[in-house]
Amino acid sequence: MSKTTNINIQIDSEFMSELEKLYGQYGLSITEAINIFLHVFLIEGCLPFEVIQQRYNTETESAMREARAIANGLIPSKKYSSAAEMINDALE
């Protein structure tokens, strides 16, 4: 068995109670949930969720989500036969 190390954090007691109830529904303790988070972080090499700091208006955010979806192949991109056709579509 490998050695363990303690990590001490301060957290609001009401928040802690909510977390215990939530993770308890999955049969997990807070310690187990944190360990899962840290293992996924180590395996993936990044946070196991998307961190977004909204700095744009709703229209821009929507356009950015659409661009990400196109880049990830989730929705097809539009194709144009000329720059004029593209500009006309953008102006509509």
TrEMBL record:
Q: Pfam families attached here?
A: RelB
Query: What InterPro entries does the record tag this protein with?
Result: Arc_rbn_hlx_hlx, RelB/DinJ
Which Gene Ontology terms describe the biological processes this protein takes part in?
regulation of DNA-templated transcription
Q: Which NCBIfam families does this one have?
A: RelB_DinJ
Q: What name does this protein carry?
A: Type II toxin-antitoxin system RelB/DinJ family antitoxin
